[in-house]
Each structure stands twice: as C-alpha cells, then as structure tokens.
Amino acid sequence: MDQLRASRLAARALAEGLAHRTPDQSDTRRVLLALTPEGEEDRDTFAALLATFVDAYTGVVRATTRTAPTT
C-alpha cells in the first residue's frame, strides 16, 4: 500500500469517527492516530486493514532495499 492509500484510509477513519489525531510529543512534525471508542468497537476490522497495510509496506521496503547481486 502506498502512502496516498494509507493517507486516504486514515482520513476515512478520522471522518467516520473511528480514530482521532494526537500530537506526537517527541516529534512535533508527526501526528499519532488513536482509536476512538467507536473505533475500539470495530477493532477487528481496523486490525485487518492495518495488517494489510503493514504487509504491503513491508513488501515495498524489501523490494526497494534489496541489493543487486555482485559478480
């Protein structure tokens, strides 16, 4: 999953009241997402979406960090 898709999913969760933003105390450039009580009720669905994102992201990272074989 690319950054644009992840951003859209986060925006959707925010718009639907499933998550809220919290400033990152250690890095003011970042914002953390946390589940709202409504989001907690839909935790299984959210967890499945998150797992899909992590799997896709891991695949992208692995694909881009592989080094070409040397001869």
Key words describing this protein structure:
71 residues; alpha+beta; Arc Repressor Mutant, subunit A; two-stranded antiparallel sheet; 2 strands; 14% strand
Question: How would you characterize the overall build of this protein?
Answer:
With 71 residues, the chain is of the alpha+beta class. The protein has one domain (3-65): Winged helix-like DNA-binding domain superfamily/Winged helix DNA-binding domain (Arc Repressor Mutant, subunit A, Orthogonal Bundle), CATH 1.10.10.10. It contains three helices and two strands, in the order H-E-E-H-H. The chain has helices at residues 3-15, 37-41, 43-65; strands at residues 19-23, 31-35. A two-stranded antiparallel sheet has the order 1-2. A hairpin with a 7-residue loop joins strand 1 (19-23) and strand 2. The model has no long low-confidence stretch (mean pLDDT 83).
Structural class: alpha+beta
CATH class: Mainly Alpha
The biggest beta sheet is recorded as: 2 strands, antiparallel
Rough outline: globular
Total number of distinct structural domains: 1
CATH fold call: Arc Repressor Mutant, subunit A
In the CATH hierarchy, what is the superfamily? Winged helix-like DNA-binding domain superfamily/Winged helix DNA-binding domain
Low-confidence runs of at least 5 consecutive residues: none
